[in-house]
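User: Could you check the structure of this?
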Amino acid sequence: MFIVPFIHKVTTHNDINVNVIQILTVGGKNLWEENNSLNIDTDILAPNDIYRTGKITKLGKKVQLCEVDTQKTNINDFYKWEEIDVNDRETFCWRTFIVLLGNNGSNWLDTSAYDVLDGYSVKELSSAIGARK
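Assistant: Sure, the predicted structure tokens are below.
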């Protein structure tokens, strides 16, 4: 299964909701993959000093979206995508996406077709994140 820890913030500019979505990735290009038999909270997130808030949202059968509790999790303990080597495929890092989302998580402005993480488009991930509330 893929674990997708994320942070989602919405700001308003000129009456347009701008969604800033940060996803914890592996090397900025892959999702975090773990064994299905592991418990997301006790076996995966907590040992990595990541704490979630709210319910886990499933995207299909393989993706588990986990909103990160930014009060309990020290985000600065992790790299940002801009801080790692472009060829790095192992380092966990936060990758930021700016998305304009409408009602029910629909995208107003498409992200690049090249923004794909392990076969899941950023458009698909961001729509699921935006629609969960």
